[in-house]
Amino acid sequence: MNALNTKVVVGLGAAGVFGAVGGGAWYVSRPKNVRSKLISEGLTLVGSSHRAWRSVFLTHSGDNEFMSFSGVGSGNSDKEAASKVMSACEKVMKVSVDSKDYTSSLNKARRYCTTPNFKTIETKVLFSDREIASEERDWKNLFTAHKEDGAFIEKVKKANLDATITKDSSSDDAKEKVKKFCNDLKVQPPNSAGIADYEKYCLQTPLIQRFSTKILAVDL
Protein backbone atom coordinates (compact mmCIF):
# COMPACT_ATOMS: atom_id res chain seq x y z
CA MET A 1 0.00 0.00 0.00
CA ASN A 2 2.80 2.36 0.90
CA ALA A 3 4.57 1.57 -2.36
CA LEU A 4 1.39 2.33 -4.30
CA ASN A 5 0.96 5.63 -2.51
CA THR A 6 4.56 6.52 -3.27
CA LYS A 7 4.06 5.85 -6.99
CA VAL A 8 0.94 7.98 -7.08
CA VAL A 9 2.67 10.86 -5.31
CA VAL A 10 5.67 10.64 -7.64
CA GLY A 11 3.38 10.55 -10.65
CA LEU A 12 1.47 13.59 -9.51
CA GLY A 13 4.71 15.36 -8.71
CA ALA A 14 6.05 14.78 -12.21
CA ALA A 15 2.81 16.02 -13.73
CA GLY A 16 3.02 19.09 -11.57
CA VAL A 17 6.58 19.79 -12.69
CA PHE A 18 5.75 19.43 -16.37
CA GLY A 19 2.63 21.50 -15.89
CA ALA A 20 4.68 24.24 -14.31
CA VAL A 21 7.21 24.12 -17.13
CA GLY A 22 4.47 24.30 -19.72
CA GLY A 23 2.81 27.18 -17.93
CA GLY A 24 6.10 29.00 -17.66
CA ALA A 25 6.78 28.56 -21.37
CA TRP A 26 3.35 29.98 -22.18
CA TYR A 27 3.96 32.97 -19.93
CA VAL A 28 7.33 33.69 -21.52
CA SER A 29 6.00 33.42 -25.08
CA ARG A 30 2.71 35.26 -24.61
CA PRO A 31 2.54 38.68 -26.29
CA LYS A 32 3.80 41.57 -24.18
CA ASN A 33 2.29 44.40 -26.20
CA VAL A 34 0.32 45.23 -29.33
CA ARG A 35 3.31 44.72 -31.63
CA SER A 36 4.11 41.22 -30.42
CA LYS A 37 0.41 40.29 -30.51
CA LEU A 38 0.11 41.29 -34.18
CA ILE A 39 3.26 39.33 -35.01
CA SER A 40 1.91 36.28 -33.18
CA GLU A 41 -1.22 36.51 -35.35
CA GLY A 42 0.93 36.36 -38.48
CA LEU A 43 0.09 39.90 -39.60
CA THR A 44 2.66 41.89 -41.56
CA LEU A 45 3.62 45.22 -39.99
CA VAL A 46 4.24 48.20 -42.26
CA GLY A 47 7.89 48.76 -41.37
CA SER A 48 9.96 51.90 -41.84
CA SER A 49 9.42 52.74 -45.52
CA HIS A 50 8.07 56.28 -45.81
CA ARG A 51 6.47 55.37 -49.13
CA ALA A 52 4.65 52.46 -47.51
CA TRP A 53 3.22 54.80 -44.88
CA ARG A 54 2.06 57.14 -47.65
CA SER A 55 0.27 54.13 -49.11
CA VAL A 56 -1.39 53.44 -45.76
CA PHE A 57 -2.52 57.06 -45.51
CA LEU A 58 -3.93 57.13 -49.04
CA THR A 59 -5.76 53.85 -48.43
CA HIS A 60 -7.49 55.03 -45.25
CA SER A 61 -7.74 58.79 -45.81
CA GLY A 62 -11.52 58.63 -46.25
CA ASP A 63 -11.94 57.05 -42.80
CA ASN A 64 -12.71 59.68 -40.14
CA GLU A 65 -11.65 57.38 -37.31
CA PHE A 66 -8.31 56.84 -39.03
CA MET A 67 -7.79 60.58 -39.44
CA SER A 68 -8.49 61.08 -35.74
CA PHE A 69 -6.17 58.21 -34.78
CA SER A 70 -3.30 59.49 -36.91
CA GLY A 71 -3.71 63.18 -36.14
CA VAL A 72 -3.52 64.10 -39.81
CA GLY A 73 -4.95 67.52 -40.63
CA SER A 74 -6.73 68.58 -43.79
CA GLY A 75 -3.79 70.78 -44.75
CA ASN A 76 -1.16 68.03 -44.56
CA SER A 77 0.36 66.70 -47.76
CA ASP A 78 0.44 62.92 -48.20
CA LYS A 79 4.15 62.95 -47.32
CA GLU A 80 3.51 64.90 -44.11
CA ALA A 81 0.58 62.63 -43.34
CA ALA A 82 2.77 59.55 -43.76
CA SER A 83 5.04 60.71 -40.93
CA LYS A 84 2.06 61.29 -38.64
CA VAL A 85 0.60 57.87 -39.39
CA MET A 86 3.93 56.18 -38.74
CA SER A 87 4.29 57.99 -35.40
CA ALA A 88 0.75 57.08 -34.34
CA CYS A 89 1.35 53.43 -35.16
CA GLU A 90 4.72 53.35 -33.40
CA LYS A 91 3.00 54.68 -30.27
CA VAL A 92 0.09 52.26 -30.35
CA MET A 93 2.39 49.29 -31.00
CA LYS A 94 4.02 49.83 -27.60
CA VAL A 95 0.80 49.58 -25.59
CA SER A 96 1.18 46.80 -23.02
CA VAL A 97 -1.21 43.87 -22.72
CA ASP A 98 -1.80 45.02 -19.15
CA SER A 99 -2.96 48.49 -20.21
CA LYS A 100 -6.64 49.44 -20.03
CA ASP A 101 -6.21 50.73 -23.59
CA TYR A 102 -4.83 47.44 -24.92
CA THR A 103 -7.96 46.13 -26.66
CA SER A 104 -8.81 49.39 -28.43
CA SER A 105 -5.16 49.93 -29.35
CA LEU A 106 -4.91 46.41 -30.76
CA ASN A 107 -8.00 46.92 -32.91
CA LYS A 108 -6.65 50.19 -34.31
CA ALA A 109 -3.26 48.66 -35.00
CA ARG A 110 -4.84 45.74 -36.86
CA ARG A 111 -6.80 48.15 -39.06
CA TYR A 112 -4.24 50.87 -39.66
CA CYS A 113 -0.72 49.60 -38.97
CA THR A 114 -0.51 46.41 -41.02
CA THR A 115 -0.45 45.75 -44.76
CA PRO A 116 -3.67 47.37 -46.05
CA ASN A 117 -6.14 46.13 -48.62
CA PHE A 118 -5.00 48.30 -51.51
CA LYS A 119 -7.71 50.21 -53.34
CA THR A 120 -5.67 51.61 -56.22
CA ILE A 121 -2.60 50.95 -58.35
CA GLU A 122 -0.94 53.97 -56.75
CA THR A 123 -1.20 52.60 -53.20
CA LYS A 124 0.02 49.15 -54.21
CA VAL A 125 3.08 50.53 -56.00
CA LEU A 126 3.95 52.96 -53.21
CA PHE A 127 3.75 50.19 -50.62
CA SER A 128 6.38 48.26 -52.56
CA ASP A 129 8.73 51.21 -51.85
CA ARG A 130 8.92 52.61 -55.38
CA GLU A 131 8.60 56.34 -55.99
CA ILE A 132 5.83 57.49 -58.29
CA ALA A 133 6.04 60.53 -60.54
CA SER A 134 4.22 63.52 -59.06
CA GLU A 135 5.92 66.78 -59.99
CA GLU A 136 6.37 68.82 -63.16
CA ARG A 137 9.96 67.74 -63.67
CA ASP A 138 8.85 64.10 -63.37
CA TRP A 139 6.36 64.38 -66.25
CA LYS A 140 8.91 66.10 -68.47
CA ASN A 141 11.56 63.54 -67.60
CA LEU A 142 9.22 60.63 -68.25
CA PHE A 143 8.38 61.95 -71.70
CA THR A 144 12.06 62.35 -72.52
CA ALA A 145 12.80 58.84 -71.26
CA HIS A 146 10.00 57.10 -73.18
CA LYS A 147 9.34 59.23 -76.28
CA GLU A 148 11.09 56.73 -78.57
CA ASP A 149 8.66 54.04 -77.40
CA GLY A 150 5.83 54.07 -79.93
CA ALA A 151 3.47 52.24 -77.58
CA PHE A 152 3.98 54.93 -74.94
CA ILE A 153 3.17 57.72 -77.41
CA GLU A 154 0.00 55.93 -78.52
CA LYS A 155 -1.15 55.38 -74.95
CA VAL A 156 -0.62 59.05 -74.08
CA LYS A 157 -2.53 60.07 -77.21
CA LYS A 158 -5.43 57.81 -76.28
CA ALA A 159 -5.57 59.03 -72.68
CA ASN A 160 -5.77 62.64 -73.87
CA LEU A 161 -7.85 62.09 -77.01
CA ASP A 162 -5.10 64.05 -78.71
CA ALA A 163 -3.39 62.80 -81.85
CA THR A 164 -1.01 65.75 -82.10
CA ILE A 165 1.58 64.51 -79.61
CA THR A 166 4.60 62.82 -81.19
CA LYS A 167 8.09 61.84 -80.15
CA ASP A 168 9.22 65.20 -81.52
CA SER A 169 6.96 67.18 -79.20
CA SER A 170 8.73 69.27 -76.58
CA SER A 171 8.70 68.02 -73.01
CA ASP A 172 7.02 71.29 -71.99
CA ASP A 173 4.15 70.59 -74.37
CA ALA A 174 3.92 66.91 -73.42
CA LYS A 175 4.20 67.08 -69.63
CA GLU A 176 0.50 67.67 -68.89
CA LYS A 177 -0.49 64.91 -71.28
CA VAL A 178 1.87 62.44 -69.61
CA LYS A 179 0.51 63.53 -66.25
CA LYS A 180 -3.08 62.80 -67.31
CA PHE A 181 -2.07 59.41 -68.70
CA CYS A 182 -0.43 58.42 -65.41
CA ASN A 183 -3.13 59.94 -63.21
CA ASP A 184 -5.79 57.97 -65.08
CA LEU A 185 -3.84 54.78 -64.43
CA LYS A 186 -3.06 55.30 -60.75
CA VAL A 187 -6.69 55.34 -59.61
CA GLN A 188 -7.51 52.00 -61.24
CA PRO A 189 -7.97 48.88 -59.04
CA PRO A 190 -4.63 47.45 -57.83
CA ASN A 191 -4.83 44.21 -59.80
CA SER A 192 -6.06 45.70 -63.07
CA ALA A 193 -4.09 45.40 -66.29
CA GLY A 194 -3.10 49.06 -66.06
CA ILE A 195 -0.54 48.35 -63.35
CA ALA A 196 1.95 47.10 -65.96
CA ASP A 197 1.84 50.44 -67.82
CA TYR A 198 1.98 52.39 -64.58
CA GLU A 199 5.08 50.56 -63.40
CA LYS A 200 6.72 50.91 -66.80
CA TYR A 201 5.92 54.53 -67.59
CA CYS A 202 4.90 56.42 -64.43
CA LEU A 203 7.59 55.82 -61.82
CA GLN A 204 10.37 58.29 -61.20
CA THR A 205 13.33 57.55 -63.43
CA PRO A 206 16.76 56.80 -61.89
CA LEU A 207 17.92 60.32 -62.81
CA ILE A 208 15.13 61.97 -60.82
CA GLN A 209 15.59 59.57 -57.93
CA ARG A 210 19.29 60.39 -57.69
CA PHE A 211 18.51 64.10 -57.81
CA SER A 212 15.91 63.76 -55.03
CA THR A 213 18.33 61.75 -52.91
CA LYS A 214 20.99 64.47 -53.24
CA ILE A 215 18.51 67.12 -52.12
CA LEU A 216 17.53 65.01 -49.11
CA ALA A 217 21.18 64.50 -48.19
CA VAL A 218 21.80 68.26 -48.32
CA ASP A 219 18.74 68.93 -46.16
CA LEU A 220 19.97 66.45 -43.59
Structural class: mainly alpha
Question: Using only CA atoms, what is the Rg?
Answer: 27 Å
The termini sit apart by 82 Å
Percent of sequence in beta strands:
under 5%
H-E string: HHHHHHHHHHHH
What ranges have pLDDT less than 50 throughout 5 or more consecutive residues? 1-27, 208-220
Q: How many separate structural domains?
A: 2
Commentary on this structure:
It is a single chain. With 220 residues, this protein is mainly α. Helices cover 67% and strands 0% of the residues. It has 2 domains: 31-117, no CATH class; 136-202, no CATH class. Helix 2 packs across helix 6 (102-112) and helix 3 packs antiparallel against helix 7. The longest helix has 28 residues, at 2-29. The chain is elongated, with a radius of gyration of 27 Å. The N and C termini lie far apart (82 Å). Mean pLDDT is 86; it is low at 1-27 and 208-220.
